[in-house]
Amino acid sequence: MYAKMSSIICLTLFLAFPAFAAEPVFDRVMKTKTINGGYFVYPPYITKDTNTGKFSGINYDIMEAVARNLGLKLNWSAELGLGDVATGLNTGKADVMCASLWPSPDRLATMTYTMPTFYDVNYAFVRADDKRFDGDLQKANQKEIKVAGVEGDVSADLAREKLPHAVPQFLPQTASIGETLLYLTTKKAEIVFVDEAIVNDFSKNNPNKLRKVEGIGPVRVFGEHITLPLGEYHLRDMLNVSLQQLVNDGVIQAITEKYSKEYHSRFIAPAKSFTAAE
Predict the structure, then answer these.
(1) What are the helix (H) ranges across the chain?
(2) What CATH number corresponds to the domain at position 152?
(3) Enclosing domain of residue 192
(4) Pick from 4, 85, 87, 122: most CB atoms within 10 A?
């Protein structure tokens, strides 16, 4: 009886924590001196030239600097959909998701997060001719107002938090944030919470379609994080040490300033871990 119960318990633990049966990602990375990076194309965070295959973007610059700092090679080898990141990481398709993610309860339960690589600023956006909510966001908190977002994303979290009485018009996790902007322009929704850089990139091909809700300021400032398979704390700690050094050396400050200027947006570098007299 006891032997049978012990076998059942052991089997249950094995099934519940399959990662313990496999080689830790950290060990493999250190053996090969290579990180297999996951990504999704999402300007200005990750951009990929369709003709040359060349990558660029704020996440690209940061993660390439992290890899160089650690003496590792970074392969941009696995393109994953936004809704497939956790599965891709936890099944070995990628060692690290190099496109940053906003933290949300759903994501925190399925992935391990690094320290913030930079901070992003989130605003409310509407169609260019819509001034109903200027100066008072609660004017949008009505049952006849539709708010766009992506399930599992901070856009949906903010919609539920800030406008609980509005009607959610949420896309599945496989959708991009850019698709929520199309919900505004096609009048499927009337307001969305996103960062300014996404809107500015969208506006390059869709000028004068959207505007920031005036008189309410930022809705939230949040950290952008690199993610890893659940429980990969040793690898996370190594990346964090590299990230903090890049912060202290001013490297990430220079990167955030570059993309803030290019996209007329606000990307904020994390604070240095020390203060020193000049």
Answers:
(1) 2-16, 25-32, 58-70, 85-90, 105-108, 154-162, 177-185, 196-205, 233-248, 251-263
(2) 3.40.190.10
(3) 121-220
(4) 85
